[in-house]
Specification:
The model has no long low-confidence stretch (mean pLDDT 91). The chain is an alpha/beta fold. Helix 7 (176-182) links the parallel strand 6 and strand 7. The longest helix has 30 residues, at 107-136. The protein has helices spanning 16-19, 21-31, 35-57, 100-103, 107-136, 140-148, 176-182, 197-206, 210-226, 233-243, 264-274; strands at residues 3-5, 8-10, 62-71, 74-84, 87-94, 158-165, 194-196. Helix 5 (107-136) crosses helix 6 (140-148) and helix 10 (233-243) packs across helix 11.
Amino acid sequence: PAVGLGGAYFCPIPQMAFSHIHRLMDRLANEAGLQQQLKDRRAVYLERELEVVFRSALPGAEIRSGVKWKKDGQHFETDLVVVIDRVVIIVEAKSHRLTQQGLRGAPDRVKRHIQEIVLEPSQQSARLESLIEAGRSGDPDAVAALAAIGIDADKASRVIRLSVTLADLSVLSASEQDFKKLGWVPEDHALAPNIMIVDLRCVADILENELLFLHYLSERNHLQKSLNLIGDELDFLGLYLATGFNLAALQGKFTEFSPSGMSAPIDRYYEGTQAGLKLRKPKME
């Protein structure tokens, strides 16, 4: 973006820096020897933002971060556990960055990103869900382990799993069926929805009602299992505002479903608000 001219710099298109801001900052951090500090800061930032979003969206919930528990003699840690009424939300946060090779489509690198950012956190949340299932079935060890982290097995009738990232995986975030065809995700694993933290904040902001927010997270899981989706999270949110994810009539009729463009009302709202306009927030239809 800048050309060195002795003691000065020439910037032909100054705004071009922001088209490559992540690469620029990464290079600066690398040259300054700050990569590890940057990695640590990203992790702390994501975990804090995650808690802020859930405390804002579900003010009546019990929320615990960095929850440590044990199963079969092994120790595990869950980034965030949210308990509200009979619902338990298990959230794992991944602050990994996407590499340039992965963004250019290098298959081995993309596969590694999917396994690190999508599969591994999903497997982590699945372990705690299986412990809750064991507790509901009366396993005394599971009941005791759950009680130690504030979960009543008898009352945990609904479990919602979620993975949250800093990286924008865009349309890859819901391609569960494609991942399984490629062998990148085991056929018998129920993949948790993967949502970028910025998009999760939008979901919580648009769906101000606690029940709608919970319903979205719950149905979002079923959505990516019932249809092969092509779209990003705000497209899914736009689809939810229009239909409540009541899409049973589509199942079995299409091999792929793309709600691309359904984020338009949400995009207009945020762009207009940033420009200083007073606009009505999009509502459920």
